[in-house]
Design goal:
The complex is a heterodimer of chains A (about 290) and B (about 230). Chain A is α/β, with parallel strands linked by helices and about 290 residues long. Helix content of chain A is about 40%, strand content about 25%. Chain A has helices spanning about 1-20, 75-80, 110-120, 135-145, 150-160, 165-170, 180-195, 210-225, 235-245, 265-270, 275-280, and strands spanning about 35-45, 50-60, 65-70, 90-100, 105, 120, 200-205, 230-235, 245-250, 260-265. Helix content of chain B is about 80%, strand content about 0%. Chain B has helices at about 5-35, 40-70, 75-110, 120-140, 145-150, 155-175, 180-210. In chain B, α1 runs parallel beside α3, α4 packs antiparallel against α6 and α6 packs antiparallel against α7 (about 180-210). Residues about 220-225 of chain B have low confidence and may be disordered. The chains are: A alpha/beta (about 290), B mainly alpha (about 230). The interface of A and B includes residues 26 and 212 of A.
Chain lengths: ~290, ~230
Amino acid sequence: MNDGAVARRTNEEALTEARYGALFTEGNALTMGDTKIAVQGLNVFYGKFRAVGDIAINIPDHRITAIIGPSGCGKSTLLRALNRMTDLVPGARTEGRVLLDGKDILAPGVDVVEIRRRIGMVFQRANPFPKSIFDNVAYGPRLYGTRGSQLEEVVERSLRSAALWEEVKDKLRHSALALSGGQQQRVCIARAIAVEPQVILMDEPASALDPIATLRIEELMRQLVSQYTIVVVTHNMQQAARVSDLTGMMMMRPDRTGELIEFGVTAQMFTRPKDKRTEDYITGRFG
Amino acid sequence: MPRETLEREIKALQNEVLLLGSMVEEATLSAVEALKRKDLQASQRVVAGDRAINAKRFAIENACLSVIATQQPVAQDLRIITAILEIITELERIGDYAKGIAEITLRLGDQPLVKPLIDIPRMAQKAVDMLHRALSAFVAGDDHAAGRLPMEDDEVDGLYNQVYRELLTIMMADPQKIDGATYLLWVAHNLERMADRVTNICERTVFLAKGEMSELDTSKGDTSGAP
């Protein structure tokens, strides 16, 4: 466990170096790393209505990618398409390709449950099960057959990774619902981590939290990114600016289909956006 | 734990300011040394080196903008960043002074110096030392040290007055030497201005700590704004 912690810290330092070193490199070239999820020609329909259209984006590995944009522009729909949560909406249809490590998760015959294990999700309102903290985090691993001391190790490791262990280690059998909002959200993060995903999708993860809890979640995200790939949807632009390495800006077309109008290094997006619509939005002059 | 990212970025910016500072200190001392030895090649190197100083200044400025845009610093964090923006401007100007001195050496070419350089190198040493301590005080947030430093500008001003009187005397005694003496006057003037800019840097450090801008007066005994 110690080696892992050392490796994580070194990775985090290296990541900060890369992210921050980019500020001092001419041309602001942030090494994008390898592509973890490649989205090509993605269209999502709810019945006849096209919610998102022609999305093409490369989500890099071990980076935080934020998706921002005004209400209704399709950010959550895009996020949910990345692990086929859109399948659960009656009448929803997805076209195009979503390649995880080069393999299309939209292809027929793909094991959707496995996809959702590898690409986990954390929602806006923390939704711990009405069970103990331990049972919340153990739920997924138990389904995969993990038992006994191995199960306890997984739970502890996940809660440590979610920066929650010290606060709950003496009350693991207490109900998760008795925790504060920020703690509940971290239980949900631990729960997602427990099944060893590669990607964590976060849909407005801190919007229901107070400012301190929000900052703690953001710091947690920066710690997690050395081990996972994170995609976060947020309507809080300052949060996107603080926490992400790359930002994608979405906007609604006149026909109300959401499209991606700009995608780039966060520091550049918030100092020198390329598209005027992006500039109008982030400076608050939109609408 | 919170704002680790912001703290790391501010630390990195401060380190870059120190780095820019040492580039400028080096340029100043090299320029004056090259003048003393009439070393044209060394002077050319100082002139060429000014490009790197300018480039680093702009890189730091860019980085400050990114930090402001992405981390939304407020209160003292914001004052540190804006202080850095001002300080790098002062440093870049000081770099220009060093380049100016080197250019004078190149202009003098073969012409012998109208007097041996004694006070001018002393001015340079003093000004560089003040700059170094001013930047250290800034990074440490030491407003006490920063408040006291401008008083040492008197020493530089004193040396400047001496150089001025000597060169004027030389010019009046021998009009052939007006040209060479004027160049040396410019060199001395550049160094005197350098020390003045150090005072500006100190003002920023005090502002940083206190949240209020005040002029740090360099007249003996009168240091309004210093603690």
